From TrEMBL:
UniProt source species: Arabidopsis thaliana
Signal peptide positions (record): 1-26
PROSITE patterns: RHODANESE_3
Keyword DNA-binding: no
Annotated GO MF terms: catalytic activity
Protein origin, superkingdom: Eukaryota
Every Rhodanese domain range: 86-178
Protein name as annotated: Rhodanese/Cell cycle control phosphatase superfamily protein
Record keywords, A-Z: Signal
InterPro entries, sorted: Rhodanese-like_dom (IPR001763), Rhodanese-like_dom_sf (IPR036873), STR17/STR18/HARC1-like (IPR044684)
Lineage of the species this protein comes from: Eukaryota, Viridiplantae, Streptophyta, Embryophyta, Tracheophyta
């Protein structure tokens, strides 16, 4: 009877542990809250700040000539042209229209590929406090997810990732604003 009691106890524990709620975050992975664009619009209307984290090109040497890629400059090189449209033209075409919107690229394109903007945290910290309510978005929600994880792990308290990004925002026909201000790389 003693072994039967042990077996029943084991089965009971197995069933209990199997039905405990599971979380997708681990100790090393910060918990990220992703919201849809409907929730994002309501939060922005209530005073949240929107950070657009789309990519931008970093100045680099190419073909023995130093090319400084500024926010709205035209780039002749075919290699650069293939990359340029993913950020410069995205933001040129428009972004979420809200009271507080900042463009702070999380990733930069270099000849070696994408790299995290080394000034991202510094730039965000110059615009926002760690207790500010932030929503991060990009074109589709993938880059902003990484940036949201980074900010949460850096101590920012109320940060949300906008699922679907700018594409979902436009598909819902939410307000869009077009900026004509030139941003210089040094401002990043």
């Amino acid at each position: 009877m003693d072994s039967l009691h042990v077996l029943r106890s084991f089965l009971l524990l197995f069933i209990v542990f199997n039905h405990l709620p599971r979380t997708t975050t681990s100790m090393s992975e910060p918990k990220v809250i992703t919201i849809d664009v409907n929730q994002a619009q309501k939060l922005l209307d209530s005073g949240y700040t929107f950070l657009d984290v789309r990519l931008i090109l970093k100045p680099f040497r190419f073909s023995h000539a130093f090319i400084v890629v500024r926010y709205y400059c035209l780039v002749i090189s075919e290699i650069l042209r293939a990359v340029k449209h993913r950020t410069v033209e995205e933001f040129k075409k428009g972004h979420v229209d809200s009271e507080n919107v900042f463009n702070v690229p999380y990733w930069l394109y270099t000849p070696q590929g994408q790299e995290i903007n080394p000034n991202f945290l510094k730039h965000v910290s110059s615009l926002c406090n760690q207790t500010d309510h932030l929503i991060l978005g990009c074109k589709s929600g993938v880059r902003s997810l990484h940036a949201t994880k980074f900010l949460v792990s850096s101590g920012f308290k109320t940060v949300r990732n906008m699922d679907g990004g700018y594409i979902a925002w436009v598909n819902k026909r939410f307000p869009v604003k077009v900026e004509h201000k030139e941003l210089k790389y040094d401002e990043l």
